[in-house]
Amino acid sequence: MTQVLIRSGGLYTTVQDTGRFGYYHMGMPPSGAMDVFSAVVANLAVGNPDGAGVLEATYIGPKLEFTDDRLVCVTGADAPVTLNDDPVEPWTALRVGPGDVLGFAMIQAGCRVYIAVSGGVDVPVYLGSRSTYTLTGIGGHEGRKLHDDETLPLGEPGNTAHPGATVPSRLRPPLENPAELRTMVGLCSYRLTEHGLDSFLGTDWKVTKDADRVGYRLRGGTLDFTEREQPFGAGSDPANVVDLGYPIGSIQVPGGDEPIVLLNDAVTGGGYATIGTVISVDRDRIAQAKTGDVVRFQSVDLDTALTARRERQQRIEQVRQEVVR
User: Fold this and answer.
1) Please, is 81 exposed, middle or buried when counting C-beta atoms within 10 Å of its C-beta (0-12, 13-18, 19+)?
2) For residues 187 and 185, what is the distance between their CA atoms, to the nearest angstrom?
């Protein structure tokens, strides 16, 4: 079995793919790459299927030593990348060989980098996915982030990519700060006053240090709730409701002053009002927001959300045409 050597695991590097779906009703979130576009495009550049296993690294990337000939591509956040200590280009298929070492410096913009290797990271499939869900210790590499001085298995490379294949800059997503997050308002937005909803949509929210794969806590304003007698089964906080399901990307506001956007590894239900849901495409954007960055919510309808999803898939297909020849 061919392996890649993990000389340094970076700050928080896990194996991910496009997600573990079909088990939400059992309390199992999808996990998977937080920035789906970057993960899929990295795989395309090295000739992998869209859903092959990749590495997702937060803030500080890993140091990887290769043991055979491969292609590797780095996408996502803007982070200096080196091969044997020489700078190399991201969003490009790079040829590596035995003894070559891929390294990273601290990110300059964005939050997460994605590293695809031809053949994919070939960890065992669990419930249809190679994604890591660290809260329960399943999937990925032993259900956890990577450690220094260990190995990861790699699959057999395909023949559909070539060194130097580059994702054109026009197809790379911008790393925006502030990040505009298109949001479908509801399910429990009725709990906010009109002023509270206006404040939610009109505030520049800052990402706090409590921001990870479970969710992003934001700070910057206060939201007013309508007065009511709490129903049986709900807690005493105005943000409490009788338990309901939490869509990925849903926004809850415990206490009314620090919205939390629930993401890939979040719990699937609970008793806080969810006042809106970030559309699936723009979860890529919040995935690239780091502590101290600013996000804004923009109310959109279902047609806008579906159009955005189609447009992202079209961009992926454009990338496929550019890098697979």
Assistant:
1) buried
2) 7
Class of residue 228 by CB neighbours under 10 A (exposed 0-12, middle 13-18, buried 19+)? exposed
CA distances from 138 to 4, 31, 53, 96, 103 (A): 21, 10, 15, 30, 27
CATH of domain 179-308: 2.40.100.10
What contacts 313, CB < 8 A, 6 or more positions away?
none
Contact between residue 115 and residue 102 where contact means Cβ atoms under 8 Å apart: yes
On whether the CB atoms of residues 48 and 39 are closer than 8 A, the answer is no
Report pLDDT for 240: 87
- Give the domain ranges of the chain: 3-171, 179-308
Instruction: Decide the pairing of beta strands 179-185 and 294-299.
Output: parallel
Backbone angles phi, psi at 299, to 5 degrees: -75, 125
Q: State the pTM of this model.
A: 0.96
Q: Which two tokens stand for residue 104?
A: 């990273």
State the CB neighbour count (10 A cutoff) for residue 310.
10
Q: Which is nearest to 263 in space by CA: 275, 281, 276, 251?
A: 251
Spatial separation of the C-alpha atoms in residues 278 and 293, rounded to whole Å: 17
DSSP 231: P
Give pLDDT tens digits for 237-278: 888 888 899 999 999 998 778 999 999 999 999 989 999 999
Give yes or no for residue 124 having a pLDDT over 80: yes
Phi, psi of 25 (to 5 degrees): -65, -15
- Strand partners of residue 238: none
Tokens of residue 167, six digits: 């994702």
* Cα 323 to Cα 302: distance, rounded to the nearest angstrom: 32
Q: Which residues of 241-279 are buried (b: 16+ CB within 10 A; e: fewer)?
A: beeeebbbbbbbbbebebbbbbbbbbebebbbbbbbbbb
